[in-house]
Design brief:
With 136 residues, this protein is of the alpha+beta class. Helix content is 12%, strand content 26%. The strands form two sheets. It has a four-stranded antiparallel sheet with strand order 1-6-3-4, with no helix packed on it. A three-stranded antiparallel sheet has the order 5-2-7.
Length: 136
C-alpha cells in the first residue's frame, strides 16, 4: 500500500462498558484519548507504566465525576505500517448483581443525580443491545 486509507482507524472512538480498564504492555503507539476540549492526544505509556481508563460503569457510580475515557487507536506513521501493535487490556467488571447506583457523595446541587439505579448485569445487557452485539 502506497498511501494511507482515508478515515481508517484500528479501533473507532469508544468508551469501555466496564468499571476500569488496565492497559499493560501496549507497544506500537496509536492509542489516543479525547481530552475535555474534545481534542485527541497520544496516550503513550512508558516502560513499566500502566494505563488506567475509566469505564461507563464507573461514570455511573460517580455520577459522571469520573468520566468514561473516550479513546481510539489510529494507524501508525507509514514507516511503522508493517509493525504489529500489541496491547494487553484487563477489563474489570463487577458481578452482575452489583448495584450501579450513584454514590451519595457524588450527588449535590452542582451535580444532581444523572442516572437511574440499575445493576451491573442489566446495564451490560442494555449496552450490548445498543451496540448490536445481542438481540433484545
Amino acid at each position: 500500500m502506497k498511501e494511507a486509507p482515508k478515515q481508517a482507524v484500528r479501533a473507532a472512538a469508544h468508551g469501555d462498558i466496564n468499571l476500569i480498564t488496565l492497559l499493560m504492555g501496549a507497544q506500537g503507539g496509536g492509542l489516543q484519548v479525547q481530552n475535555r476540549s474534545g481534542e485527541w492526544i497520544a496516550a503513550n505509556a512508558q516502560e513499566g507504566e500502566l494505563m488506567i481508563n475509566m469505564g461507563d460503569m464507573m461514570a455511573r457510580l460517580t455520577n459522571n465525576r469520573l468520566k468514561s475515557t473516550i479513546h481510539r487507536v489510529v494507524n501508525p506513521p507509514k514507516a511503522l505500517w508493517g509493525k504489529s501493535r500489541y496491547s494487553i487490556p484487563f477489563f474489570m467488571h463487577p458481578v452482575a448483581q452489583m448495584p450501579l447506583d450513584c454514590l451519595s457523595n457524588c450527588i449535590d446541587a452542582q451535580n444532581p443525580l444523572q442516572f437511574d439505579p440499575i445493576t451491573a448485569g442489566a446495564f451490560l445487557h442494555e449496552r450490548l443491545i445498543e451496540l448490536g452485539l445481542i438481540k433484545n
